[in-house]
Write a structure and sequence with these properties.
Elements lengths: L1 H25 L7 E4 L6 H11 L6 E2 L21 H8 L10 E7 L15 H16 L4 E9 L9 H4 L3 H22 L4 E4 L5 H4 L3 E2 L4 E2 L4 H11 L5 E4 L10 H19 L3 H7 E3 L1 E3 L3 H4 L16 H14 L3 E4 L28 H9 L12 E10 L5 E5 H4 L17 E3 L9 E10 L8 E10 L1 E6 L2 E7 L6 E6 L9 E10 L5 E2 L4 E8 L3
Parallel strand pairs: 1-2, 1-11, 3-4, 4-5, 5-8, 8-9, 10-11
Antiparallel strand pairs: 6-7, 12-22, 13-14, 13-15, 15-20, 16-19, 16-21, 16-22, 17-18, 17-20
Helix pairs in contact: 4-6, 6-8, 9-12, 12-13
Length: 531
Amino acid sequence: MATSNCNLAVAICVTIFVLSTSVWADRDFYPGKKMIYFCRVPSVEYIRKNIREMEKVAFDGLVIPEAHSWSTWSKRRMVIKDLQPLIDNLRATKFRRFTDNFLPINSYFPSKEETADWFDPAWSAVADNAAVMARAAKQSRLKGIMFDTEQYGDYRMWDYDEAKQGRPFKEYRDKVQERGREFIRAINREFPSPVIFVTWSYELPIAYPHPVGVGGQPLYALLIPFLDGMIEAATPGTVLVDGYEYGYGFVSERAFMGGRKMIKDTARNAITSVPQAFDKHVRLGLPVYPDHWASMSMPFVFDRVETNLVTPDLFRTMLANALSVTDRYVWVYSERLRWWDYGAEFGADAPIEYGKANAPKEYVEALRLARKGPAPGNHPDKITWPNAKLELSKENWRFALDSTVGQTSAECVKTGYDDSSWQQVKLGETPSYTGKAWYRFRFSGPVLAGNMRAFLTVPTADEFARVWLNGEYVGEHDLNRYGYSYFSIEVSKSYKPGADNLLVLQMDNRKGASGITNPLKLSEAGYAQIQ
């Protein structure tokens, strides 16, 4: 009888353990937190037709593309019928998982003539345009507005230069704050309780303190009073999420907590002029940009994902730690990682990065696993994005056509090969050719910081290139169409810091222009701990 009771107790314990571990395995450690995708989102027509397939990827919402988002700051007034196709498609889309979607407003200032200055009576068109965008977002059942505050175009509205503006900074600051109030009131007339997701805002005076022109004000100095005006006049239900774009390279919870302290303490106590409104409306959002280095011409490898600067495990950890620290939203920005098969939208001649869905399954899975916590193992606090250490001179390259090298071409890559008979050239001034040609260049390699990885960037190559460093093959690049393109290759294993290096490229030109024209660069990238 005792044995039977013991066995029963063991069985009960095992059952409880299995059930509890199952519940634990399925647990979302960050309930209520949302991951939003912002970048190469397909058209609303594609979204409507493919929403069930799209929602298999573990996002919670999208920033919906809309061409009129680039026209908000124009003197030309928009009308709601311009956005009616967008509204119709979104209202017809049966969203289930993607519950938090946003319509963008971009800070695009094309020119002084086309952009209404802060003191220009025509500025009222900007508020009216914002109201049109807000109405479209509300009628489309979106969560709110994604306000991209990065300055695009030629006229930098967020910067202050007394020599150009002709008025003292205080006068401009007060007027811009007034415009911020007008801006949010126009939005709230159409959308009483929106989420306004700002890519970056109150961290800017600290992140980018560089003075601009006469007057000594930092970059984006006028953005802060504009946002202060917005939160000062916003309805009680309006939420302004500071997306803290400055944190693109953060990995650890400690790094993201530094961003939280920047917004919650420093910005609140030392930057905003309306701290009570700040407390009421401003919330912290955080970014994750898994292929950021790729947008800076660094390589992204799809078939050997563990060689990427951000591996799938590191991507998962970035997401998990951002979810842990954010008030509600984490936004994912990616340029090389395409999450859905929508290449046909861009036509047959579109660049390869617009091609079919090419996010490796490991990154798709990392999105899902992020809600279960960081990947096991030790991780850095942040990523050090590529930093150019050396620009190779355009002078003193050795050049030879493959046809003149003959049967010894296999020897051309060796460090001991005698290239003294080759032509000495300057990049951009080599003879025009069709077919293959060789380039050799010797340089003294700078010492890299810490455990940084080395990358070689070739800014203009026509059209196919193979690359060797110190006699070792490091990779190749095929443009696969006529014309020049840049590319980068990691050269860490063959690079010799603080010593002489030999770089060899074999180019293959098929049509038109030929060769390499611009200086090559050696860069370093890697990981860092917070000191």
